[in-house]
Design brief:
Elements lengths: L8 H9 L4 E5 L3 H10 L3 E4 L3 H4 L11 H14 L4 E5 L9 H15 L3 E3 L7 H9 L4 E6 L5 H4 L9 H17 L3 E5 L3 H10 L4 E4 L7 E4 L1 H4 L17 H17 L11
Parallel strand pairs: 1-2, 1-8, 2-3, 3-4, 4-5, 5-6, 6-7, 7-8
Helix pairs in contact: 2-4, 4-5, 5-6, 8-9
This protein binds 3-methyl-2-oxobutanoic acid (KIV).
3-methyl-2-oxobutanoic acid binds next to strand 6.
Amino acid sequence: MSTQNKKTIKSILKLKQDGIPISMLTAYDYTFASIIDAAGIDIILVGDSVSNVFSGNETTIPVTLNEMIYHAKAVMKAVQNALVVVDMPFGSYQISIEKALENAIELFKTTGVQAIKLEGGKEIAPAIKKIVDAGIPVMGHLGLTPQSIHQLGSYEVQAKSAESQQLLLENAVCLEEAGCFSLVLEKVPANISKKIAEKLLIPVLGIGAGNGCDGQVLVMHDMLGLNPNFNPKFVRKYADLHSIILAAIGNYINDITTKEFPNLKESF
Ligand code: KIV
């Protein structure tokens, strides 16, 4: 395998230093990870959104550490160039700093990913510091943190007031000081994410956080239009795969029922 284009924590940091926007997309399986990697994405996130879009759960809460390991291993088999980051699922880092470190090590060691991601601010900074000190790169995640959905009450835009924006800024600084190499900001006003991206030395990746971030992340299933019923404002649909797949499968069924498939060339 050529290592010439392989993205590293260092090369991702350099993109920010050079003012080059960073691209990130989710993947949970071998086939899609290989396509995304071949397209030249900088970072692949094995997100705990796998719980929603793959497993059909309403929230990200039910996904387990073993399930994240399973998906991360599949993605890692495909990826040659992108930096691969995997989410620590809910419950795997909140119990104690020791437990967080133990689970982070298991995730890191068994999958071979280059970094892990944790949701939360000051309250998890000691756990992040411990994990980073053990040699595991950590990506932070602030703003709308889906693992806390029942505390937040809804998937609405976060940090709308001056006080909550100040708190967000303080949390972002705290995560950088704890050793995070990058930070995801989800569903926050564009003005505050721009301010945070300007203040921090580490890259800030936005999802529904405007154009002032150092890069952007989306859930692959959303930007490929796989679910016609999910149309949030911040998602740009680059394809309508739902319609394409529906039509293709309809044609397949039709060809079977009309005995058009298989034809002689497709038979032995
Ligand atoms: O799990 C996920 O897909 C994420 C992105 C929304 C950033 O955390």
